[in-house]
Amino acid sequence: MATTKTKKLRGYSRNFPTTTSPKRVMLTIDRIPPKFYTAIKAKAKKDGVSLRSLVLTWFAIWLDEDKQKKARRGKDKVAMTPAPVDATLSDASEVQ
Fold it and tell me: What is the pLDDT of residues 59-85, one digit of tens each?
């Protein structure tokens, strides 16, 4: 009795669901060196990762870094504004 080996499919990441919307985008990266791309595909296959998921994860991390930089800049601006003066301090200076 012969056993049939089934190929494990990597599928799409649940973090980045596919869409049937006409607004979807197909990304094509041109002129990747063939040996480099072969190594990328081999590593992705070995690690059980889809290239789509890998690239979209990189984009998400990149965008998140930008949001964090903007948030840090916003916190710096808030920290540089003067604190409100306590009412009791202003009353004490008038009593002299």
Answer: 999 999 988 888 888 776 555 555 555
